[in-house]
Design a protein that fits this description.
The complex is a heterodimer.
Chain A: E1 2-13, E2 16-27, E3 31-35, H1 42-50, E4 57-62, E5 65-66, H2 72-78, E6 80-82, H3 95-102, H4 111-116, H5 119-139, H6 154-166, E7 172-176, H7 184-199, E8 203-207, H8 211-217, E9 220-225, E10 228-233, H9 235-240, H10 242-255
Parallel strand pairs in A: 3-8, 3-9, 6-7, 7-8
Antiparallel strand pairs in A: 1-2, 1-4, 4-5, 9-10
Helix pairs in contact in A: 3-5, 3-6, 5-6
Chain B: H1 2-24, H2 28-53, H3 61-77, H4 83-102, H5 110-130, H6 132-135, E1 148-149, E2 152-153, H7 157-178, H8 182-192, H9 194-199, H10 204-230, H11 240-253, H12 259-270, H13 274-277, H14 283-291, H15 293-307, H16 311-325
Antiparallel strand pairs in B: 1-2
Helix pairs in contact in B: 1-7, 2-7, 2-10, 2-11, 2-12, 3-4, 3-5, 3-10, 4-10, 7-10, 8-10, 11-12, 12-16
The chains are: A alpha/beta, B mainly alpha.
Chain lengths: ~260, ~325
């Protein structure tokens, strides 16, 4: 069953067409990877999907409901949570508190209840903290629970953001380059975490440059180049796709 | 554990001291000065949430204080409304004005927000002077009744002191609770990384409006208590200078803290009364402090921002770690 459907999404910034008529489906319970050379429009597409930017044309359907034009916090309430390529940690809050903020849509404590902090509110807080610790263990960042967000290494920040996004108990988790800044051991651990998250019933859409990770965990891959979708299919198909090879080799030559 | 113990012990000792004060002295002047400290604490609690936690500046809080004072003064003095009702209406009206004002300011941040609230403050100052029918113009309002509940009248300096301080303690406890739960975390998240806050499902616009209205309401509550405590109000009290002083208390106290601004508020409010509070002080020292008061405050502020940007709260936070290292 299709959980997320993008239909003809386009976004221009001045003369640049960042995303050009992109359509795809993400099926429930799968991991889909979004790859492509730098500047292919992956992050812009992420922003279009999550309400941080609005497409010029096109439609985004989440569980058959249009979410285009919804503000980011409404998208989260609908059941989609994301992380950022440039991490958006709350530097002055501890890692555990960061994850607790992620539970904002799950908890109900308002200003009055928070100010009174009666026993029921305290019980809710205790449960929330236990769940935050559980999520930090799940992503392998539990050693940093009490550290201020600002003091945590970059690689770990990405893991904390995953835990924070999971804290809203999303149906769909969108990860923007979660493996950037991780070493090999940490990347292997991340792959295992993502599999556990998938096994818990969360669908994942991931932007990632680490091809080893992408090929290992994805059920399907979609390839963007200069804003356009140039290929879509299983990892085995994508590895052999002529257009994909050209897009990546082309980039290598430009780099050299 | 040590800091946690200190976290409950120090406030508890403070509360006992505050409540015991009427049994230790009968000095009317002292009670009056301490009443001002308590009133400022109520405003500072709201500003600490707005500025120290949510990172939104306001140079208009003296105006909200004024709205509360004039509303309560007019209602109890001219319209003979019961004190408690008038006080609540005053606080709610200030919150309502804060709510309405914050809507068009949602897009503003930093200096722009400061300028907008400054403009509001100036408009209100003019209004306090020109709306003579309600505010009494430059002459202000006189003979505002003391606080009373039914036939029980709070008309002694120590009684008014206790009323204000109990209110302040309740407000501070509520604020300290708030920052430890969901809404308080959302405020800190808003300050830390707005995109991240939105990605966590926080309606940042709504939250901004809520915290602004709340802090305006607390300023209004303090203003209402001020009117009935002092019995006389005039426009000069609700000036920009007072707004800046309030913000200075939060800055010196440190962001992301309630305790720090409380300490800074007590110190800065007492500074002008140093001659009365410290009896043995030589006349030269007193006159020096009074002549250079604004300059001293300014220099202290610059030094704090340069060498202890965390303010009082930053110093308090650092000290237990130093102790542990020994």
């Amino acid at each position: 069953m299709t959980l997320l459907a993008a239909r003809g999404l386009s976004k221009r910034f001045g003369g640049l067409v960042a995303v050009d008529d992109v359509s795809f489906d993400v099926y429930e319970g799968t991991i889909k990877a979004l790859i492509g050379p730098n500047g292919a429009g992956k992050s812009t597409l992420f922003n279009l999907l999550t309400g941080f930017d609005r497409p010029d044309v096109g439609e985004v359907l989440f569980a058959d409901t249009s979410i285009v034009g919804l503000q980011p916090h409404r998208v989260v309430r609908a059941g989609m949570a994301r992380t950022f390529q440039n991490t958006q940690m709350f530097g002055e809050m501890t890692v555990t508190e960061n994850v607790l903020v992620g539970m904002h849509t799950r908890l109900r404590t308002g200003f009055a209840a928070g100010a009174l902090r009666l026993p029921p509110t305290r019980a809710v807080e205790r449960d929330a903290i236990a769940r935050a610790n559980h999520l930090l263990r799940l992503v392998g960042a539990d050693a940093f629970g009490d550290a201020p967000g600002a003091d945590v290494p970059h690689g770990v920040r990405r893991l904390v953001e995953i835990a924070r996004a999971l804290a809203s108990a999303p149906k769909l988790l969108l990860l923007d380059e979660p493996a950037a800044g991780l070493n090999n051991t940490e990347t292997v651990a991340l792959a295992a975490s993502l599999r556990r998250i998938q096994a818990d019933g969360t669908t994942i859409l991931i932007v990632e440059h680490d091809m080893g990770l992408v090929m290992e965990i994805s059920d399907e891959i979609i390839v963007l180049d200069r804003g356009r979708k140039i290929a879509e299919g299983s990892p085995r198909l994508i590895q052999k796709d002529a257009a994909v090879i050209e897009a990546y080799l082309g980039e290598v030559i430009v780099d050299a | 554990m040590r800091s946690r113990l200190a976290g409950t012990l120090v406030p508890a000792v403070g509360v006992i001291l505050v409540l015991a004060m009427p049994f230790m002295t009968t000095d009317r002047y002292l009670f009056k000065v301490l009443t001002f400290v308590g009133l400022n604490l109520i405003v500072v609690a709201g500003l600490a949430l707005l500025f120290g936690y949510a990172g939104q500046i306001s140079l208009g809080h003296a105006a909200f204080f004024g709205i509360g004072a004039y509303t309560a003064g007019y209602l109890t003095g001219e319209a003979a409304v019961p004190w408690l009702v008038a006080t609540l209406v005053a606080a709610l009206l200030a919150a309502l004005v804060g709510f309405v004002l914050s809507l068009p300011m949602l897009r503003l941040k930093g200096h722009y927000l400061a300028m907008a609230t400054l403009g509001f403050s100036e408009i209100m100052t003019v209004l306090f002077i020109e709306a003579r029918g309600i505010t009494g113009g430059n002459d202000g309002l006189r003979g505002i009744p003391y606080p009373s509940l039914g036939s029980f009248k709070i008309d002694t300096p120590s009684g008014v002191y206790l009323l204000v301080w109990i209110t302040a303690i309740v407000v501070l406890v509520l604020a300290a609770n708030l920052v430890r739960t969901r809404p308080g975390r959302a405020l800190r998240a808003l300050h830390g990384a707005e995109l991240g806050a939105q990605a966590c499902g926080i309606d940042t616009g709504r939250l901004r409006v809520q915290v602004f209205a709340l802090s305006a309401g607390l300023a209004g509550l303090a203003g209402a208590l001020y009117a009935s405590a002092v019995g006389f109000i005039s426009p000069t009290t609700f000036s920009l200078e007072f707004s800046v002083l309030l913000v200075a208390m939060v800055v010196l106290g440190g962001t992301g803290s309630v305790t720090g601004p409380v300490v800074a508020c007590v110190l800065l409010t007492l500074l002008p009364y140093v001659d009365a509070l410290v009896p043995g002080l030589p006349r030269e020292v007193v006159s020096f402090l009074q002549d250079w008061e604004a300059d001293i405050a300014g220099i202290v502020m610059i030094l704090v921002l340069l060498f202890a940007p965390g303010g009082v709260a930053g110093l308090l936070r650092r000290s237990p770690r130093v102790g542990e290292a020994e």
